């Protein structure tokens, strides 16, 4: 057996299960096309208000509010209120890392 071969006995299966569960929850949150579209817009701008998200994505109320609510509940976005406007930004480092790859692969446009 080479030194590069993974020793199966050294794997902490319980830690791996916990990590898999966390990754699965993140991917479940990202598995809706409107949520991905919203997150792509937020990643691209760094922060976006509800009005701008509605205009840029074409997602209308109440679906927009519902999908932003799911992202909030799952800890993927932060909110900031300025007067009557609510601004959204990415809250989760894990979601940001995944979204950066997805943004580069699927959201960014060639200019």
TrEMBL record:
<keyword id="KW-0238">DNA-binding</keyword>
<dbReference type="InterPro" id="IPR011991">
    <property type="entry name" value="ArsR-like_HTH"/>
</dbReference>
<dbReference type="InterPro" id="IPR036390">
    <property type="entry name" value="WH_DNA-bd_sf"/>
</dbReference>
<dbReference type="Pfam" id="PF01022">
    <property type="entry name" value="HTH_5"/>
</dbReference>
<dbReference type="InterPro" id="IPR036388">
    <property type="entry name" value="WH-like_DNA-bd_sf"/>
</dbReference>
<feature type="domain" description="HTH arsR-type">
    <location>
        <begin position="16"/>
        <end position="110"/>
    </location>
</feature>
<dbReference type="GO" id="GO:0003700">
    <property type="term" value="F:DNA-binding transcription factor activity"/>
</dbReference>
<dbReference type="InterPro" id="IPR001845">
    <property type="entry name" value="HTH_ArsR_DNA-bd_dom"/>
</dbReference>
<keyword id="KW-0805">Transcription regulation</keyword>
<keyword id="KW-0804">Transcription</keyword>
<protein>
    <submittedName>
        <fullName>Biofilm growth-associated repressor</fullName>
    </submittedName>
</protein>
<dbReference type="GO" id="GO:0003677">
    <property type="term" value="F:DNA binding"/>
</dbReference>
<dbReference type="InterPro" id="IPR051011">
    <property type="entry name" value="Metal_resp_trans_reg"/>
</dbReference>
């Amino acid at each position: 057996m080479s030194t590069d071969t993974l020793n199966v006995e050294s794997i902490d299966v319980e830690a791996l299960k916990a990590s898999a569960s966390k990754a699965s929850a993140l991917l479940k949150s990202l598995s809706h096309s409107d949520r991905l579209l919203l997150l792509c817009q937020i990643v691209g701008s760094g922060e976006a208000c509800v009005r701008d998200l509605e205009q840029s994505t074409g997602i209308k109320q109440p679906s927009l509010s519902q999908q932003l609510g799911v992202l909030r509940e799952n800890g993927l976005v932060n909110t900031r209120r300025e007067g009557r406007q609510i601004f959204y930004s990415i809250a989760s480092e894990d979601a940001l890392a995944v979204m950066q790859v997805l943004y580069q692969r699927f959201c960014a446009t060639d200019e």
